[in-house]
Amino acid sequence: MQNRRRIVITALVFLLPTIVGTLIFRLIPIIWSFALSFYEWKVFDKAVFVGWKNYAHIFTSSISLDVFVNSAIFSVIYVAGSLALALVLAVVLNNGLRSSAFFRGAFFVPYITATVAIALAWRWIFSTRFGVLNNLLIALGVENPPAWLADPAWALPAVALVSIWKDVGFYMILLLAGLQTIDPTLYQAARVDGAGPIARFRKVTVPLLTRSLFFVLIIALVRSTQTFEITYALTNGGPNRASTTLAFFVYQKAFVDFEVGYAAALSYIMCVILGFLTLVSFYFRRKWVHE
Q: Domain-by-domain residue ranges, the chain?
């Protein structure tokens, strides 16, 4: 009995730092921010209880609705683009190319590179007058290439493009790991049956890769709601909030406008939306994921 009690006490002593850290830096801030979402608090003023006013204002404000639309557009571009490009890269690099190891590292490097450095490089690429991209388009015959980061029609797609470029290497590695678990004899059997490369991809690769694709889908969906650094460094949410997504809007309300209660309400709306999308994804998982 004493030995068992000693083991339990020893385990608690080792777990105590994690428990205390989780309590202080996770649970208490979550509970406190939820309580703050029912207050109007300007940081330097006294907090005033307003009930559901912050939540009501979110769904009646035209600015908030525009931000939700921007977030939806960004998520669609980011998730679809990341999945498609990562799948193509993973399939190409899984074919045993002599330089595949080099390209795996090259595509993964942007994911671990500092976001500010990436944003500065892409600001130069997107530059209207001196950027590499517009000069290339002019050389190809495009007379009036867009002002990528200054045009409301192109700012959000530009931010999504950079986000995809930064993260696709990580998703590629995950899918590549899934591809390498597929039994090569299945491809040999498909060749014997007369299946071409496209048929083998549709009938063998995709069905057996659906678990990895679902995993990448969930990660990309979560990442699409957390975009902040690239938006901040490229466009600062502009022009005219054209590239402002929900996570960046939370930052603006909390740390620029100091509307902490409103920002907390936005955060919980974002959590509810993300939770709903995740549940929907898991519900439809049984319809297309092959176990």
A: 53-288
Please give the pLDDT value at position 35: 92
- The third-level CATH classification (topology) of the domain covering 53-288 is MetI-like fold (1.10.3720)
When pLDDT is averaged across residues 247-272 and rounded to a whole number, the result is 92
CA separation for the pair 70, 238 (Å, rounded): 12
3-state secondary structure the chain: CHHHHHHHHHHHHHHHHHHHHHHHHHHHHHHHHHHHCCEECCCCCCCEECCCHHHHHHHHCHHHHHHHHHHHHHHHHHHHHHHHHHHHHHHHHCCCCCCHHHHHHHHHHHHHCCHHHHHHHHHHHHCCCCCHHHHHHHHCCCCCCCCCCCCHHHHHHHHHHHHHHHHHHHHHHHHHHHHCCCCHHHHHHHHHCCCCHHHHHHHHHHHHHHHHHHHHHHHHHHHHCCCCHHHHHHCCCCCCCCCCCHHHHHHHHHHHCCCHHHHHHHHHHHHHHHHHHHHHHHHHHHHHCCC
The pLDDT-based confidence of 79 (bands split at 50, 70, 90) is very high
Per-residue burial over 97-111, b = 16 or more CB atoms within 10 Å of its CB, e = otherwise? eeeeeeebeebeebb
Report whether pLDDT(82) > 90: yes
At 13-28, the pLDDT tens digits run 899 989 999 999 889 9
Q: What pairing do the DSSP bridges indicate for beta strands 39-40 and 48-49? A: antiparallel
Integer-rounded Cα Rg, in Å, for the chain is 24
In this prediction, residue 276 has a pLDDT band, given cuts at 50, 70 and 90, of very high
Write the single-letter amino acid at 39: Y
Nearest of 248, 202, 212 to residue 74 by alpha carbon: 248
What confidence tier does 291 reach under pLDDT thresholds 50, 70, 90? low
